[in-house]
Amino acid sequence: MSEKLHHNEHVEVHHDLSGETKKNLERLHEKAENAHEISHEQVEELRKSVEHHAKPSHEVGHEEQEQIQPSGYAQKELKLNAYNRTIKHVRSQLNAPERVLSRLVHQPLVEKISDVSAVTIARPSGLLAGGFFSAIGSLVVLYMAKRNGFTYNRLVFVILFGGGFIVGLLVELMVKLLTKKSRLRNPS
Length: 188
Known about the structure:
Layout: H1 19-34, H2 40-53, H3 62-68, H4 72-92, H5 96-105, H6 108-120, H7 124-148, H8 155-185
């Protein structure tokens, strides 16, 4: 009972139309076929209109250009949303104890403290120099204590580590200053 019409089949419908209706139908059909064609005069009129209303790039103020770019708040919000989606995705792949630890570690206060300490306190050069000074210094003090008969004070380790840490930071600062000066003299 059901018949399907395929795309390549054309169905012609013949109705009894009056002469005037046939003329209107032919005129509309002809207009539809020529609707995509635009005359050169119309193109020139449109071009002149665009040139008249458009501003040259040097006349566009910085205020108008800044409106196009997203504001700092919107950019910050986009980054925060992406960060939250990433954290949520990673947590979904963790087991229960790791999820709890992740929630604890990624609290805003804990993250801020961690970021600040990573930049200021936990410098690799300071930790390396502090460890080296405390290890070598403790061995020397321990040897002297055994040889001369006095007791080893554990506070010596902490003091040597702190001194070595400061020495390591100063060495890193000097290296950075020297490399910065050499880059300024010899830009390559």
